[in-house]
Amino acid sequence: MPPSIDQPVPDVFAAVASPTRRALLALLTAGETPATELAGQFDLTQPAISQQLRILREVGLVAERRVGRQRLYHLNPGPLRELADWVRQYEMFWVDRLDRLGAHVDRAEAQRQAGRAAKQRRGADRAAAGRRK
């Protein structure tokens, strides 16, 4: 069931915008990892890493499992797939735009080369005309 209008929608885009959170996700690709081990990979305090993990958990990118006093985190790739699917919608737009840009650059380069060749021919023609005089 979608969230009501009064409830904020978790924003996966905002969550992955942070370099720290992206690094946490990258670390979690290796498998389930204790929060303390994750925190040890950063020059941040344990509470700061916990805050970052909370944000990732809220958008569903990570899940937490408690074993005694330890919190183990693992990656939940589902929201990343949804994000990739959303981005993929725009892929053809960008492919088309980049193809058109590439064709424009190719035409401009061909025109520059043709201009240089014409300039060299004119220079050669002038030199030949000067030798005939």
Question: What topology does this entry show?
Answer:
Blueprint: H1 12-17, H2 19-28, E1 33-34, H3 35-39, H4 46-58, E2 62-67, E3 70-75, H5 78-88, H6 91-132
Antiparallel strand pairs: 1-3, 2-3
Structure description:
- The chain is mainly α and 133 residues long.
- It folds into 2 domains: 12-78, Orthogonal Bundle (Arc Repressor Mutant, subunit A), CATH 1.10.10; 90-132.
- The chain has 6 helices and 3 strands, in the order H-H-E-H-H-E-E-H-H.
- It has helices spanning 12-17, 19-28, 35-39, 46-58, 78-88, 91-132; strands at residues 33-34, 62-67, 70-75.
- It has a 3-stranded antiparallel beta sheet with strand order 1-3-2.
- The longest helix has 42 residues, at 91-132.
- It is elongated, with a radius of gyration of 29 Å.
- The model is unreliable at 1-9 (pLDDT under 50).
Short description:
It is built from 6 helices and 3 strands; from the N terminus they run H-H-E-H-H-E-E-H-H. The chain is mostly helical and 133 residues long.
Specify the CATH homologous superfamily of the largest domain.
Winged helix-like DNA-binding domain superfamily/Winged helix DNA-binding domain
Mean of pLDDT: 86
Number of helices: 6
Order of helices and strands: HHEHHEEHH
- Write down the CATH class of the largest domain: Mainly Alpha
State the CATH architecture of the largest domain. Orthogonal Bundle
How many domain modules? 2
Uncertain segments of ≥5 residues (pLDDT<50)?
Answer: 1-9
Coarse morphology: elongated
CATH topology of the largest domain: Arc Repressor Mutant, subunit A
Alpha carbon gap, first and last residue: 91 Å
Extended strand count: 3
Strand content: 5-15%
> Which sequence of strands runs across the widest sheet?
1-3-2
Secondary-structure-derived class: mainly alpha
Work out the helicity level: 55-70%
Please compute the radius of gyration using only Cα atoms: 29 Å
